[in-house]
Amino acid sequence: MKFKAFVIERDKHEAMLFKLAFGGNKYYDIEFFDSVKSLLGAVEQGPDVVILDLLEPEMHGIELIKAISKINPGTHFIILTKLCDPHVIEKAQDEGVFKYVIKGDNSMKYLKKSLKELSLVLKGKLIDS
């Protein structure tokens, strides 16, 4: 069974790289959005996970997480961002973010690992902590 992942990525180049890295994966069907508005319009479809940056121009990522959680409380979140401020990470954890991945040379590797771990949680084979 594949799970539904929504990714918000404004940069077309980054979105293309993401598609190349995750195309044909066995865990998730991935849908891309280029704005907060388009993502929020689709959240009622019930994504299992939303992958987002905290630095969205339309709305801060923490506020976006809160908005999505109101619409679809069962959604999990993975943050992929350049922000490494401990206070921001703590706020994200307070909102129940599954993983917080800092963008860098190995971020796609960590993101793939995070998605695999989350798929096990969703299948009930790993205890979500």
From TrEMBL:
Q: Which GO terms describe its molecular function?
A: DNA binding
GO terms for biological process, alphabetical: phosphorelay signal transduction system
Tell me where the signal peptide lies. none
What superkingdom does the record give? Bacteria
Q: Report the source organism.
A: Aureibacter tunicatorum
> Can you say what this protein is called?
DNA-binding NtrC family response regulator
Q: Which UniProt keywords apply?
A: DNA-binding, Phosphoprotein
SMART domains, A to Z: REC (SM00448)
Record bears the keyword Phosphoprotein: yes
Q: Which InterPro entries match?
A: CheY-like_superfamily, Sig_transdc_resp-reg_receiver
Modified sites of kind 4-aspartylphosphate? 53
Q: Which residues form the Response regulatory domain?
A: 4-118
